[in-house]
Amino acid sequence: MSQLHPNLDIDQANQDLKGKSPEEIVAWALTQAKNPIITTNFRPYESAILHLVAKQKPDITVLWVDSGYNTDATYRFANKVIEDLDLNVITYIPKQTAAHRDVTMNGIPGVNDEQHDKFTEQVKLEPFRRALDELKPDVWFNAIRKDQTEFRQGLDVLSLSKDGVLKVAPLFEKTDSDLDDYLLEHHLPNEFDYFDPTKVEEHRECGLHTQL
After folding, report:
1. What is the DSSP code (8-state) at residue 91?
2. What are the C-alpha distances in Å from 145 to residues 1, 8, 92, 118, 152?
3. What's 47's DSSP letter?
4. Could you give the CA distance from residue 161 to residue 154 in angstroms, rounded to a whole number?
């Protein structure tokens, strides 16, 4: 039970939401929210979750933790989606510059490098914790899907963060093919030139959904 959601039976809520559409899941979650946010990294298919939530709550705070290591294409994609959907984006960045970190760590540490955990803490986890502490959301919309990693197969549409924030994944049961259809239906852009330096490998967790 969460102090932010003392009356919520999350297991029952997950049962109740089984078979519901993403739109219905978003609508339900917004009834639980006083200060919702949606997080994005502008990876492939992110325009789907952003459109899905923003069409029901256009002024929702969109949190983007920009590691500073995104591709040129990702930055152009982010600019387009932000403008096209008129998103209320708040950007958080690491406390250290990428240039300083590159010198200190000799570039991006590989996943087997002892500095990789420190790198992930600096570029992703610390800025996210700082953002959650300052923004104080009670509902956190995210784009995680069951088929992305082995860890996520053990999750559900709803889960609670370490601080009791209700994490909502409206697209949890959807596949790439489903999202291709959604993007086509709503004339939304997509971009596959994307790199996450904290994950490196597509099916690896970076710690965001395992630690926060």
Report:
1. E
2. 24, 23, 24, 26, 7
3. H
4. 15
pTM for the full predicted model: 0.91
Task: Please answer whether residues 163 and 14 qualify as being in contact, where contact means their C-beta atoms are separated by less than 8 angstroms.
Answer: no
Distance (Å, whole) CA 166 – CA 36: 9
Q: Using DSSP bridges, classify how beta strands 36-40 and 61-65 pair: parallel, antiparallel or unpaired.
A: parallel
Amino acid (1-letter code) at residue 73: A
Residues 61-98: b if buried by 16+ CB within 10 A, e if exposed: bbbbbbbebbeeebeebbeebbeebebebeebebeeeb
Blockwise average pLDDT, block size 10, the chain, 212 residues: 84 95 98 97 97 98 96 97 98 95 93 91 95 96 80 75 94 95 98 88 57 67
